[in-house]
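thread: overnight batch results

M.L. [08:02]
morning all. the overnight job finished for the chain we discussed friday. pasting input first so we're all looking at the same thing
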Amino acid sequence: MRTAVVSVAVSLAALLVAGCGSLRPDAMTMEENVKRAQADRKKIEQAYVPVSGPLSLSEAIARSLKYNYDGQLAKTEINMQEKQLDLALSQMLPRLAAGAGYDGRTNYNAAQSIDVFTQQQSLTYSYSQQPQFSTADLTLTWNALDLGLSFFQARQQGYRVLIAIERRRKVIDNIVRSTATAYWRAKTASELLPRIDPMLKTARQILEASRAASAQNLQSPLALLDFQQNMVIVLSELERIRNELSAARIELATLINIPASTDVVFSGGFADNIEPQFGLNNHRLEDIGLTLRPELRIEAYQKKIDQQDIYKEILKMLPGIGMIGGFNFNSNNLLYTNTWGEIGIRATFNLMSMIQGPRAIAVAKQAVDLSEERRVALSVAILSQINLAINEYANSLDTFKTAKDVDRVGVQIGRVADSVSEAGAQSEADRIRRQLTVLTTRIARDRAQVRVLASLASVYSATGMDLVPAGAELQDLPTLTGQVEQAIIRWQAGQLPELPAAPPAPEPAPSTSEAPVAPVHTAKVD
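M.L. [08:03]
and the structure it wrote out:
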């Protein structure tokens, strides 16, 4: 018998060891990784939505908002917080529990009775319970302390929903700014890239001809090397410009959810007058920023959440009063009544809360003060951002005006260079160098213009003005495109949101006693 037990134990141990060894996973094979990569690529390509017709700025922003994964994540977070709010509200309801059971035994639960005074048997063996019976109950419990805590928890969750909305505003703002900047850069690239490729081809041909002349010793070696060095510099500059412009197209394609190799046709052109109508009123923009910035609103909601913790800690110091009521059933036929109802009231008080409560309240109040200080510090940083954005915009306007003047001179140089080249008065290499100068001035002009537009978007972003409301429905692309287009028109017209008038500050109450005079400290001058 002992041998059989030992054999069974050894077998179980062997199975356990074998099972533990099988828990170690095997590395994915190359074929599995290739299959996974192909499936992921297919899923990404199926999500692409082609662009039909010329692409406008409003459609580019609308596509980015609709297909951007960060925006979808922010929307999902709002939905989750709303469901959490529904759950918190449901926790305020009383608890209603239903139960059922069955009991059975092989014999009667019989017992005798002993007189407590005489210690003599007063009754013979008897029973009042059948060997098999079933029970059922329906119990309602309600506690005032739990109701109060659930109420404040539901209020906190409601503020978290509003925080999620503000976070989505910030995500939408980042998407709008990134898409607008990428759109303007890609539009510049679409206009300049067709001019770069022919210049690159001609420059490479001239460089190859110069190298052939060097091999035949037709000219001075030093002059040829100097010429080749200049052409190599021209080629490297052209290639750098081409690569930078090509990267802008890839960035835009990623944002609007199309393949990077797609050729996009852009609609419209840059506006000549890109200065907003509202002017650069720093004080008004600061007021708008302090009112609308989502970061400040999040901190304000966080302070309200922390305030609910104070109420919760105060409530925990109160006695808990609960009520219980129920309906019961027992199938035991020996009972006089098989069904009955019951009700009761209970009061409990945690005496240790008199020690813990004040400390917990002090911690909760400190959290409120911390939220207040954090919001004030953030307000100072936001004021700095607003003024820096305004300063950057003003500087970019000056830079753009200068770049336009330089570009006008460059255009004239290009026309003269073409005329001289057609007359045979200059070499092809000199024409290429001058055309590169013209192209460089145009690129500088376009960069300055993109900088102006990007800095203007930064001004709107720093002040918290929404291009698209956080609650906008992003499923219908044409409707969303129309909303964005109307918002861009308002931006270009310089329309600023109208803030409600602040309520007048209460007048200080007259003091009944003379206020103490603060000591005046004078600096000692050595």
